[in-house]
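Render this sequence as a predicted structure.
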Amino acid sequence: MMIKIDMNSQEFKTELEKTGKFTDKVCESFGWVYNPIEEVNEGVTMGLARNKIIYNKRYCPCFMVQGETKEEQKKADNRICPCKPAIEKEIPNDGKCHCGIFCTQEYTKENAIKEKALEVSHTHSRGLTKDECEALLKIEQLDSHEIESLLEARALGFVEFSLVDVREYMEYEDNRIEGTDYLVPTTTFYQSLSCIEDKKEDNIVLYCLTGSRSVYCQEMLKDLGWKKVSNYTSGIIDFTGKTVSGK
């Protein structure tokens, strides 16, 4: 039977308030902070309150609660907030729990910069700062707005990265993104890697026509030891910035 909870009911409002106090106490106890994205905190808090009403336990709302009876639920080792995996593994390693509500201060600061960088790159309200550039380059899949903003920032000397075309020479000669540093064709991929062999610790952005070849090359480079490789998800076909042609 489907359990329906009225979000406007006094029962839910009361439990939601209690859950807010509970998560405040968790943050205080462990030295954590809330996610800078308020929608994440609201969604998780509502989920915890919902589970408290249904199960009388604040089970993690990001996972299905296993078991019909209380005994079965206990045996199933369902996650109860704050859960053991979050305390022992997720937050120490990733900076946040799986649900995202509890974070380290370092993660929150870095993520806040990234969110601002995404906003700026998509609205083009201003140029990116150095910190915002670095935050964007930690994103593995970049869109056209982000690529153009990074290229503008690189031209101003705010950031350094290598832009690598993994298409074939005839495609490169016909049309390529202005500022492309290297050509590493997929047909001669391993033989052509010498031009970026000394950049395993540097930021690299790959692109092709539609993003399919470059995402494949991204995985290969990571397997071969390159540490900071991003991919232009939609490729040059979606690029509206400056392009050049010729040898």
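Summary. The longest strand covers residues 203-207. DSSP finds ten helices and nine strands in the chain.
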